[in-house]
Design brief:
With 239 residues, this protein is an alpha/beta fold. The protein has 9 helices and 8 strands. Bound molecules: 2-phosphoglycolic acid.
Length: 239
């Protein structure tokens, strides 16, 4: 399983260091085999002395350029300093709040693919599309896969319904299953679910057949809660 923590605009450099220390020792102590990723804010990037070989950090975004004049953005040169090789692309907050188009998202994808990054690529429908039914949902999601190389070997796809993100209201198991099953027909890479995952619903979601892991926002910000979810994942894997 893959368990990823998206800090969004939370945590400082100091609190990220403490978080990673705790998480690292938790993974070792409990012999956790899951691949665990933490996506802190840019200001918390560092060459952390992580011991677990299944714990890596990544970035929530970056500009598809080596370096240049893109005020407020960071590129490959800045990421390389911290040996960052994991990135989230297409997150709904970037698509909807920051107005990233599919064309730009796809450009980022090909840039970071050509630089060998592991990419957590996010797709998911807003509520008005969900209300139109499953076919409309899949049409919307397929449009978010336009110009994305689904055969890329370092691809992970996260299904995150927009209306479930940060709302405390996760999608229903049957809705997640239906979308993941449809995605599985096109995508061999691991498929994650994200959207109000918490210790109380993680087990049911991880048991969904085509679900290979979780992308967690709010519930990941507290390290103990995130570790609880990792423990649930370990128990589900042992079932
Ligand atoms: P959430 O966020 O867990 O707070 O819903 C998930 C995400 O945005 O990746």
């Amino acid at each position: 399983m893959i368990i990823a923590a998206n800090f969004k605009t939370n945590h400082t450099r100091e609190s990220t260091r403490e978080y990673l220390e705790k998480l690292d020792s938790f993974l070792i102590k409990n012999s956790i085999k899951d691949d665990v990723f933490v996506f802190p804010p840019f200001t918390a990037l560092n060459r952390y002395a992580i011991i677990s070989d299944n714990l890596e950090i990544g970035v929530q975004n970056a500009y598809p350029v080596e370096k240049g004049s893109f005020t407020g953005e960071i590129g490959l040169e800045q990421l390389s300093e911290f040996k960052v090789k994991n990135i989230i692309i297409g997150h709904s907050e970037r698509r909807h709040i920051l107005k990233e188009s599919q064309e730009f998202v796809a450009e980022k994808f090909s840039f970071f693919k050509s630089n060998g990054f592991r990419i957590i690529y996010c797709v998911g429908e807003p509520i008005e599309v969900r209300e139109k039914g499953f076919e409309a949902v899949m049409d919307y999601i397929y449009s978010q896969l336009e110009n994305i190389d689904l055969n890329y070997d370092k691809l992970i796809v996260a299904y995150e319904p927009v209306w479930a993100i940060g709302t405390g209201l996760s999608a229903k198991e049957e809705d997640i299953k239906e979308v993941l099953d449809a995605l599985r027909l096109k995508i061999k890479s691991p498929l994650l679910y994200g959207g109000s995952v918490k210790p109380s619903n993680a087990k049911e979601i991880l048991r969904i057949p085509n679900c290979d892991g979780l992308l967690i926002g709010t519930a990941s910000w507290d390290v103990d809660t995130f570790c609880d979810i990792i423990m649930i994942s370990k128990l589900v894997a042992e079932e």
